[in-house]
Design a protein that fits this description.
This protein is mainly α and about 160 residues long. The chain folds into 2 domains: about 45 residues; about 70 residues, Arc Repressor Mutant, subunit A, CATH 1.10.10. Helix content is about 55%, strand content about 5%. The chain has a two-stranded antiparallel ribbon. α1 packs antiparallel against α2, α1 packs across α3 and α2 crosses α3. The N and C termini lie far apart (about 90 Å).
């Protein structure tokens, strides 16, 4: 079982206070034991917390930035916005949905498997339907554009 170093350090701080040592004496003792890994500012903070009556050694949970904002609701919102406008930027998507740019990027590239191509977000792997539509568009463009005349070898003026 691995016990984090910071937890061992806190136990030593608590025990030293319980034995009657002063915080100014605890810091050098902890630094002798743990070397450069001991942080004097956190040791003083834990000394104060234990002197004020704190009994738990673990960190207190407090709200902060969530680790994930990957929900089905966000997935659907991003998909709907993309269906409306394939040229929408990741920044605009993240602002519209209300999640970070990194989470939006992850939704697009990992979950929806899209990539940026010609200012549009397109699937990494085209389906047969997408391939057929692309082929029709390209053949229509090929027929609509005038074909350049290619000179034959030997037909040039000398």
């Amino acid at each position: 079982m691995h016990i984090p170093l910071r937890l061992i350090e806190r136990v030593c701080v608590w025990y030293s206070l319980w034995m009657g040592m002063m915080p100014t004496d605890i810091v050098p003792a902890i630094q002798r034991c743990f070397g450069t890994h001991a942080y004097s500012r956190s040791i003083f903070g834990w000394c104060k917390a234990f002197q004020d009556g704190r009994t738990k050694l673990s960190d207190i949970w407090h709200p902060g930035a969530p680790q994930h904002v990957h929900t089905w609701h966000h997935f659907r919102q991003v998909k709907v916005l993309l269906d409306q406008n394939h040229s929408i930027s990741i920044n605009r998507l993240s602002q519209s949905v209300g999640i970070s740019v990194g989470s939006t990027h992850r939704l697009l590239h990992k979950d929806l498997t899209l990539k940026k191509c010609c200012a549009k977000l397109v699937p990494h792997n085209l389906t047969d339907h997408h391939k057929n539509v692309e082929e029709e568009i390209l053949s229509g463009l090929h027929q609509a554009l005038p074909q350049p005349e290619v000179p034959q070898l030997g037909d040039h003026d000398r």
